[in-house]
Design goal:
The chain has one domain: Aldolase class I (TIM Barrel, Alpha-Beta Barrel), CATH 3.20.20. Helices cover 39% and strands 26% of the residues. It has eleven helices and 14 strands.
Length: 250
Amino acid sequence: MTLPIPAIDLRDGKVVRLYKGDYARQTTFAFEPEALAARYADEGAEWLHVVDLDGARSGRFENLATVAGIASSGRLRVQAGGGVRNEDGVLRLLEAGVHRVVVGSVAMRDPKTVASWIARYGAERIVLALDTRFLDGEWRLPSAGWTAYEARTLDELLPLYEAAGARHLLCTDIDRDGTMSGPNVALYRHLGSLAPSMAVQASGGVRSLDDIAALALQGTAGVILGRALLEGAFSLSDAFAVAEKANASC
Protein backbone atom coordinates (compact mmCIF):
# COMPACT_ATOMS: atom_id res chain seq x y z
CA MET A 1 0.00 0.00 0.00
CA THR A 2 1.35 3.39 -1.03
CA LEU A 3 0.86 6.36 1.29
CA PRO A 4 1.33 9.99 0.19
CA ILE A 5 3.46 11.83 2.78
CA PRO A 6 3.66 15.63 2.71
CA ALA A 7 7.07 17.14 3.42
CA ILE A 8 8.29 20.30 5.10
CA ASP A 9 11.92 21.34 4.63
CA LEU A 10 13.15 23.86 7.19
CA ARG A 11 15.91 26.42 6.94
CA ASP A 12 16.26 29.27 9.42
CA GLY A 13 12.81 28.31 10.69
CA LYS A 14 11.22 28.88 7.29
CA VAL A 15 9.55 26.49 4.85
CA VAL A 16 11.84 26.14 1.84
CA ARG A 17 12.67 23.89 -1.09
CA LEU A 18 16.05 23.44 -2.73
CA TYR A 19 16.63 22.70 -6.41
CA LYS A 20 18.61 19.47 -6.83
CA GLY A 21 19.88 19.84 -3.27
CA ASP A 22 21.66 23.12 -4.01
CA TYR A 23 21.55 25.45 -1.00
CA ALA A 24 22.21 28.40 -3.31
CA ARG A 25 19.04 27.63 -5.28
CA GLN A 26 16.43 27.95 -2.57
CA THR A 27 12.77 28.88 -2.81
CA THR A 28 11.24 30.23 0.39
CA PHE A 29 7.49 29.82 0.87
CA ALA A 30 5.22 32.11 2.88
CA PHE A 31 3.93 29.36 5.16
CA GLU A 32 4.42 29.10 8.90
CA PRO A 33 5.63 25.52 9.49
CA GLU A 34 3.18 24.56 12.25
CA ALA A 35 0.24 26.08 10.39
CA LEU A 36 1.23 24.21 7.23
CA ALA A 37 1.45 20.96 9.17
CA ALA A 38 -2.02 21.58 10.58
CA ARG A 39 -3.35 22.19 7.08
CA TYR A 40 -1.91 18.90 5.90
CA ALA A 41 -3.56 17.17 8.87
CA ASP A 42 -6.88 18.79 7.96
CA GLU A 43 -6.48 17.39 4.44
CA GLY A 44 -6.09 13.85 5.73
CA ALA A 45 -2.34 13.39 6.18
CA GLU A 46 -1.29 10.64 8.59
CA TRP A 47 2.45 11.24 8.42
CA LEU A 48 4.63 14.31 7.92
CA HIS A 49 8.22 14.22 6.70
CA VAL A 50 10.40 17.04 8.09
CA VAL A 51 13.97 17.87 7.07
CA ASP A 52 16.23 20.24 8.99
CA LEU A 53 18.36 21.57 6.14
CA ASP A 54 20.49 23.62 8.53
CA GLY A 55 21.24 20.51 10.54
CA ALA A 56 21.97 18.44 7.47
CA ARG A 57 25.01 20.63 6.84
CA SER A 58 26.06 21.45 10.39
CA GLY A 59 25.49 18.05 11.97
CA ARG A 60 23.34 19.62 14.71
CA PHE A 61 19.56 19.46 14.62
CA GLU A 62 18.82 23.20 14.54
CA ASN A 63 15.04 23.36 14.12
CA LEU A 64 14.11 21.03 16.97
CA ALA A 65 11.65 23.41 18.63
CA THR A 66 9.62 23.66 15.43
CA VAL A 67 9.57 19.90 14.99
CA ALA A 68 8.58 19.38 18.63
CA GLY A 69 5.77 21.90 18.21
CA ILE A 70 4.38 20.03 15.23
CA ALA A 71 4.71 16.65 16.94
CA SER A 72 3.11 17.86 20.18
CA SER A 73 -0.15 18.63 18.40
CA GLY A 74 -0.72 14.88 18.17
CA ARG A 75 -2.41 15.25 14.80
CA LEU A 76 0.39 13.79 12.70
CA ARG A 77 3.00 11.12 13.09
CA VAL A 78 6.28 12.82 12.27
CA GLN A 79 9.43 11.40 10.71
CA ALA A 80 12.27 13.88 10.91
CA GLY A 81 15.95 14.12 10.12
CA GLY A 82 18.79 16.35 9.08
CA GLY A 83 21.77 16.57 11.41
CA VAL A 84 21.44 13.24 13.24
CA ARG A 85 25.06 12.14 13.65
CA ASN A 86 24.99 10.14 16.89
CA GLU A 87 22.71 8.36 19.34
CA ASP A 88 22.11 11.56 21.28
CA GLY A 89 20.53 13.01 18.15
CA VAL A 90 18.25 9.99 17.85
CA LEU A 91 17.17 10.33 21.47
CA ARG A 92 16.57 14.08 21.19
CA LEU A 93 14.17 13.57 18.30
CA LEU A 94 12.36 10.68 19.96
CA GLU A 95 12.00 12.73 23.14
CA ALA A 96 10.61 15.59 21.03
CA GLY A 97 7.78 13.31 19.93
CA VAL A 98 9.09 12.18 16.56
CA HIS A 99 7.81 8.73 15.60
CA ARG A 100 10.60 7.87 13.16
CA VAL A 101 14.11 9.30 13.10
CA VAL A 102 15.59 9.77 9.64
CA VAL A 103 19.33 9.09 9.45
CA GLY A 104 21.32 9.92 6.36
CA SER A 105 25.02 10.77 6.48
CA VAL A 106 25.77 8.52 9.46
CA ALA A 107 23.84 5.69 7.81
CA MET A 108 26.17 5.94 4.84
CA ARG A 109 29.37 6.22 6.88
CA ASP A 110 28.76 3.93 9.83
CA PRO A 111 26.28 1.13 9.09
CA LYS A 112 27.41 -0.85 12.13
CA THR A 113 26.36 1.94 14.50
CA VAL A 114 23.06 2.55 12.74
CA ALA A 115 22.33 -1.18 12.74
CA SER A 116 22.78 -1.07 16.54
CA TRP A 117 20.19 1.73 16.74
CA ILE A 118 17.76 -0.36 14.72
CA ALA A 119 18.28 -3.23 17.13
CA ARG A 120 17.93 -0.98 20.20
CA TYR A 121 14.97 1.21 19.22
CA GLY A 122 13.24 -1.05 16.70
CA ALA A 123 13.04 -1.05 12.94
CA GLU A 124 9.85 1.05 13.03
CA ARG A 125 11.66 3.98 14.68
CA ILE A 126 14.51 4.41 12.17
CA VAL A 127 14.31 5.51 8.53
CA LEU A 128 17.42 5.20 6.38
CA ALA A 129 17.82 8.20 4.08
CA LEU A 130 20.08 6.89 1.33
CA ASP A 131 19.76 9.75 -1.12
CA THR A 132 21.53 9.07 -4.34
CA ARG A 133 22.89 10.39 -7.62
CA PHE A 134 23.76 8.34 -10.70
CA LEU A 135 27.40 8.95 -11.64
CA ASP A 136 29.76 6.90 -13.80
CA GLY A 137 27.35 4.02 -14.02
CA GLU A 138 26.73 3.73 -10.26
CA TRP A 139 24.25 5.01 -7.71
CA ARG A 140 26.56 7.12 -5.55
CA LEU A 141 25.72 8.36 -2.04
CA PRO A 142 26.26 12.06 -1.29
CA SER A 143 26.19 13.03 2.39
CA ALA A 144 26.51 16.08 4.67
CA GLY A 145 23.67 17.92 2.99
CA TRP A 146 24.64 16.36 -0.34
CA THR A 147 27.99 18.15 -0.34
CA ALA A 148 30.37 15.14 -0.29
CA TYR A 149 30.38 11.59 -1.67
CA GLU A 150 30.79 8.45 0.40
CA ALA A 151 32.97 5.51 -0.67
CA ARG A 152 30.20 2.88 -0.67
CA THR A 153 27.57 2.84 -3.38
CA LEU A 154 23.87 2.36 -2.82
CA ASP A 155 24.05 -1.19 -4.21
CA GLU A 156 26.82 -2.07 -1.77
CA LEU A 157 25.24 -0.56 1.32
CA LEU A 158 21.55 -1.39 1.11
CA PRO A 159 21.87 -5.21 1.36
CA LEU A 160 23.86 -4.75 4.58
CA TYR A 161 20.94 -2.90 6.12
CA GLU A 162 18.36 -5.37 4.87
CA ALA A 163 20.36 -8.14 6.54
CA ALA A 164 20.43 -6.06 9.76
CA GLY A 165 16.64 -5.92 9.83
CA ALA A 166 16.09 -2.36 8.60
CA ARG A 167 12.51 -1.76 7.56
CA HIS A 168 12.16 1.79 6.18
CA LEU A 169 14.16 3.36 3.35
CA LEU A 170 13.74 6.89 2.06
CA CYS A 171 15.54 7.36 -1.23
CA THR A 172 15.74 10.60 -3.17
CA ASP A 173 17.11 10.85 -6.68
CA ILE A 174 18.91 14.12 -6.04
CA ASP A 175 18.86 15.15 -9.68
CA ARG A 176 15.04 15.07 -9.55
CA ASP A 177 14.67 16.74 -6.14
CA GLY A 178 12.76 20.01 -6.25
CA THR A 179 12.60 19.94 -10.05
CA MET A 180 9.03 18.71 -10.61
CA SER A 181 10.40 16.80 -13.61
CA GLY A 182 8.90 13.45 -12.69
CA PRO A 183 10.18 10.74 -10.33
CA ASN A 184 12.79 8.18 -11.32
CA VAL A 185 10.49 5.15 -11.41
CA ALA A 186 13.36 2.95 -12.64
CA LEU A 187 15.31 3.70 -9.45
CA TYR A 188 12.47 2.46 -7.27
CA ARG A 189 12.09 -0.62 -9.41
CA HIS A 190 15.79 -1.25 -8.84
CA LEU A 191 15.41 -0.78 -5.09
CA GLY A 192 12.53 -3.23 -5.04
CA SER A 193 14.74 -5.92 -6.54
CA LEU A 194 17.79 -4.98 -4.45
CA ALA A 195 16.03 -5.03 -1.07
CA PRO A 196 12.57 -6.58 -1.48
CA SER A 197 11.79 -6.73 2.23
CA MET A 198 12.15 -2.99 2.80
CA ALA A 199 9.38 -0.39 2.67
CA VAL A 200 10.64 2.23 0.23
CA GLN A 201 9.59 5.88 0.29
CA ALA A 202 10.05 7.59 -3.07
CA SER A 203 11.20 11.19 -3.12
CA GLY A 204 12.16 13.71 -5.76
CA GLY A 205 10.48 15.08 -8.85
CA VAL A 206 6.83 14.26 -8.24
CA ARG A 207 4.80 16.74 -10.29
CA SER A 208 1.41 15.15 -10.99
CA LEU A 209 -1.19 12.68 -9.83
CA ASP A 210 -0.03 10.36 -12.61
CA ASP A 211 3.41 10.25 -10.97
CA ILE A 212 1.83 9.13 -7.70
CA ALA A 213 -0.09 6.40 -9.52
CA ALA A 214 3.07 5.21 -11.29
CA LEU A 215 4.97 4.95 -8.01
CA ALA A 216 2.06 3.16 -6.33
CA LEU A 217 1.95 0.63 -9.14
CA GLN A 218 5.68 0.14 -8.67
CA GLY A 219 5.03 -0.91 -5.07
CA THR A 220 6.57 1.99 -3.17
CA ALA A 221 5.36 2.25 0.43
CA GLY A 222 5.33 6.03 0.48
CA VAL A 223 5.56 9.03 -1.83
CA ILE A 224 7.10 12.20 -0.40
CA LEU A 225 5.32 15.32 -1.66
CA GLY A 226 7.12 18.63 -1.34
CA ARG A 227 7.18 21.34 -3.98
CA ALA A 228 4.14 20.00 -5.84
CA LEU A 229 1.92 20.58 -2.79
CA LEU A 230 3.52 23.91 -1.92
CA GLU A 231 2.96 25.22 -5.44
CA GLY A 232 -0.56 23.79 -5.74
CA ALA A 233 0.07 21.32 -8.56
CA PHE A 234 -2.58 19.12 -6.94
CA SER A 235 -4.25 18.75 -3.56
CA LEU A 236 -3.28 16.29 -0.88
CA SER A 237 -6.81 14.88 -0.87
CA ASP A 238 -6.52 14.16 -4.62
CA ALA A 239 -3.15 12.49 -3.98
CA PHE A 240 -4.81 10.17 -1.46
CA ALA A 241 -7.61 9.34 -3.87
CA VAL A 242 -5.20 8.47 -6.69
CA ALA A 243 -3.01 6.36 -4.40
CA GLU A 244 -6.04 4.49 -3.06
CA LYS A 245 -7.23 3.73 -6.60
CA ALA A 246 -3.76 2.54 -7.67
CA ASN A 247 -3.40 0.45 -4.50
CA ALA A 248 -6.70 -1.25 -5.25
CA SER A 249 -5.54 -2.22 -8.73
CA CYS A 250 -2.25 -3.77 -7.57
